[in-house]
Amino acid sequence: MSAEASVGSNAADTARSVCPNTEDCPNRGLLGSKYVKLNVGGSLHYTTVQTLSKEESLLRSICNGETAVTIDSEGWVVLDRCGRHFAIVLNFLRDGSVPLPDDHRELDEILKDAQYYQVQGLVQHCLSAMQKQKDILETVCRIPMITSVKEEQKMIATCRKPVVKLQNNRGNNKYSYTSNSDDNLLKNIELFDKLVLRFNGRVLFVKDVLGDEICCWSFYGEGRKIAEVCCTSIVYATEKKQTKVEFPEARIFEETLNILIYENNRGSGGVHLLDSKGLSVGASEEEGATGGGDRRVRRIHVRRHIMHDERGHGQQTVYKD
């Protein structure tokens, strides 16, 4: 039975109704009481009329007799409402403020109770807490971790934002690494984190730790790959092969800026890209079709194969692509 509903005549033997006109009502209700016993959905609470009357609310109207309620044979005011969060409502009336849970679902339940009991102060308190949580969530950078090729394809195909993927697999150590490779690998990861913070909300950044490449950047727009920057190379030294990881910071940042033209489906417009020399190139020219509707992917491999000549240590190194 609702707290606003009066008791029917068939329940008069076991319950009494608090009515506005105390002279006509056999029980004076809560008007002359100092303490109140509340049974809220089986949750028992003992408080004062003064506490319940602190704010203009349904509870005050119950105390002053404006709202009819059910009182059982033991004097408990019965409210047909879940009593899980009623203690929070009472504590707010007592103190004027109350700590709220971080869980959004519980916070929403407290808001619903505050609206039902018409405690406007608690309603505003809950709404402010919800807005604060929303603001915090908007500033949090979430980076998906790819676990399968199928998951990657689905994520890129359904995402409406440009996508930047860093493939980072340090475990692919077929050859030993050069002395600066570990530092450059960390620099690539640090640059990824900086780009996430800078373009949060505009670009979806994902990490792939399962691929074959040790360090490779991929850039996607409108569900297709636009460019790729591979940062690894094989050094053909005199004694053994080595894997070298580069850190082409300028090129990576350039491709990240280029991918922004696909933000909000603007990729088909007349926006210009930057080529490898920093010159402006029309998007239609840069993405020219190769036939059958396919489009080219800009693939940048940093010093893919490096071979040292036979001169002494410290002499010139010859690079062959």
From TrEMBL:
Gene Ontology molecular function terms on file: ubiquitin-protein transferase activity
InterPro entries to which the protein is assigned, alphabetical: BACURD1-3, BTB/POZ_dom, SKP1/BTB/POZ_sf, T1-type_BTB
BP terms from Gene Ontology: negative regulation of Rho protein signal transduction; proteasome-mediated ubiquitin-dependent protein catabolic process; protein homooligomerization; protein ubiquitination
GO cellular component: Cul3-RING ubiquitin ligase complex
Domain BTB: 34-134
Family: Belongs to the BACURD family.
Protein name: Potassium channel tetramerization domain containing 13
Organism (species): Neogobius melanostomus
